[in-house]
Amino acid sequence: MDLMYKSTRSAEIRVTASEAILKGLADDGGLFVPEEIPKLDKDLSEFAKLTYQETAYEVMKLFLTDFTEEELKSCISRAYDSKFDTEDIVSIRKADDAYFLELFHGATIAFKDMALSILPHLLTTAAKKNRVTNKIMILTATSGDTGKAALAGFADVEGTGIIVFYPKNGVSPIQEKQMVTQKGKNTYVIGIEGNFDDAQSGVKAMFNNKELAERMDKAGYQFSSANSINIGRLVPQIVYYVYAYSRLLKDFEISRGESINVTVPTGNFGNILAAYYAKCMGVPIKKLVCASNDNKVLYDFFRTGTYDKNREFVLTTSPSMDILISSNLERMIYKLTGDDPEATAKFMKSLAEDGNYTITEEMQKGLADFTGGYADEQKVAETIKRIYELDGYIVDTHTAVAASVSHAYQTASGDQVKMLIASTASPFKFTRSVMNAISSKYDNMSDFELVDELSELSGVRVPQAVEEIRNAEVLHNRVCPADKMQEAVEEILGL
Q1: What is the reported pTM?
Q2: Residue-range domain boundaries for the chain
Q3: Topology of 92-108+233-461 in CATH?
Q4: Separation between Cα atoms, residue 350 and residue 332, nearest integer Å
Q5: What's the rounded Cα separation, in Å, for the pair 18 and 136?
Q6: pLDDT digits (tens, 9 = 90+) for 43-101
Q7: CA nearest 226: which of 107, 324, 124?
Q8: Do residues 375 and 291 touch, judged by C-beta distance below 8 A?
Q9: What does the angle CA 68 – CA 71 – CA 74 come to, to the nearest 5 degrees?
Q10: How many CB atoms lie within 10 A of CB 70?
Q11: Residues 216 and 184: beta-carbon distance below 8 Å
């Protein structure tokens, strides 16, 4: 029996996994969720014998049931290959009395590579399965990392094009240069005069615009998404939590059946939702620690039960988390309502119209697996310096948010369960913030001088992703107001 997908906002919509991947967003504006979260069909001790690619197949086959074994294994082998600078695909580093799950060994040195390396293959396979003849235009908003990872994944992929919107002054210099130097005849990068939430709202509005969809169809195009609202982004992220647990088991860091805690630096709620799905599948995760930066809308939600985006948007040194509308939380809200699409739609309508909603006490009880915390800019800098001085290990700003929150949680709760921390980006993406945290003597160096200094300090070779943009030509310099995003897309597509 195929596992089907339904919308968080309508009981009527029911599609296959390949259809959900193709669409990205449901026609009613909801997100696709599996009708049930499948259980792992192997013991975790068996997973300890598997490679990352083999683990990916064993997890993803349970969700993407209308893909054949040959199709899925082909997608996996093409995604998780020599683009990654470690044969293991991900690494685990012990430091600061925790296990750092390094998810940044891919082509763009951020955790988004883990899902965006495979999404183009899943999408083009899904298009063939569903006899799609339109050119698939990937429309994506990025707070820094998704954009480059998606651009790299879809560049010159036949039958696709990709348009990425990013906040013009809201990403790091390295992140921006990675995007604006992207090659590929089918790639478009547009800076917007606004923040990530403006970009994300603009993209969602275009997905929900039926008149635009009709005009695109006539012109031979259709939209899909590379954001974590696409189930094809979320499912591959579950894999690395299963893999991480099995690695800890294999390396005798934990015993069979032993629980771990997981801390995730969180913006759009996709990465931590993947950890929650892994827990539901049978991975012994006790506590999910949701780490926020100064944009602590999720911390406040876990503390009070009220989600309120009506607040100042803060630009921080962890820009991929500078988000006030955490789109993937909708999938969690749906589960908390007991899979009630009407109730979920009401909460989302309240968020759209009033900027907030409050869940019931009963729903709050369903969040017992989660706890929230946040780290301000000072704590982030202090954490980078502390871990470097303690262990000689250098983490990026987003990972430092997680490490700070994890440390505070363990101290306050006395919880001694072993902690896995999702390390979501290489420090080489945020060199200035990282090096300034370690010492003020780096203030006057250029971005690429800092890259070389960081390499010397950490003993880690400068990643290829950074080397290749050192002298790369800027190929994308388009900027538009937030309310002119659709016009920019229409111009690109010649509508």
Answers
A1: 0.92
A2: 92-108+233-461
A3: Rossmann fold (3.40.50)
A4: 16
A5: 14
A6: 999 999 999 999 999 999 999 999 999 999 999 999 999 999 999 999 999 999 999 99
A7: 124
A8: yes
A9: 145
A10: 8
A11: no
